[in-house]
Amino acid sequence: MEYASSRQGYAIRNQAGVYFLTFQVVFWMDVFTRQSYRDIVMDSFIYCRSTKALKVHAFVIMSNHVHCILSSGREDLSGAIRDLKRHTSKAIMEQIMTSTESRRLWLWHQMKFAASRHSRNEVYQLWTHDNHPVELTDNFMMDQRLNYIHENPVRAGIVAKAEDYIYSSAANYSGEKGLMEIDLLE
Fold first, then answer.
1. Phi, psi dihedrals of residue 156, rounded to the nearest 5°
2. In 3-state terms, what secondary structure has residue 180?
3. Which residues contact 53 (CB under 8 A, 6 or more apart)?
4. What is the pTM of this model?
5. Which of 9, 43, 57, 59 qualifies as a FRET site for 134, CA 20 to 30 Å off?
6. Exposed, middle or buried by CB within 10 Å (0-12, 13-18, 19+), for 88?
7. What are all long-range contacts of 177-181, with beta carbons under 8 Å and residues at least 24 apart?
8. In what order do the strands lie in the sheet with 19-24?
9. At what angle do helices 104-116 and 77-98 cross, to 10 degrees?
């Protein structure tokens, strides 16, 4: 079994392992249709790489979820993910409330309702609590998940070629420069 379930949801067993993860927005709300919110996730990946030893091996930011392959150089992957999700949640909510977001009230009410259903949240909830971690223990699993991540925008009909979707690491893997430096899987 790749993950262990607990009362709090899924748990990462091997903190030093390489994991495929999905960060899902509550109620599958299309939050990441706005570039400013996608940029917050990108900036957070970059920050966590430089200060928390988070290794970002692959990612794609879709309209309502993020797929990624991550590991930690400090053997605290759960802590790095927690900090990343907490920061992006706060920063995105602040951006929603201070920008000219046409969906401001609807987003706020949805996130407030989501928070009311969980004791872990005080006021609002952007991300679901489960990341559905899958430890990638061999090259077959890594290649399979890497392809799944990069082909997501192609399957969604957003681009014809995976490397053309800029909010993804596909360009990095095709020898081009992506939006951020990543830790290529070998």
1. -80, -5
2. coil
3. 72, 73, 74, 80
4. 0.91
5. 43
6. buried
7. 179/42, 180/42, 180/45, 180/46, 180/49, 180/56, 181/49
8. 54-61, 65-72, 19-24, 134-135
9. 140
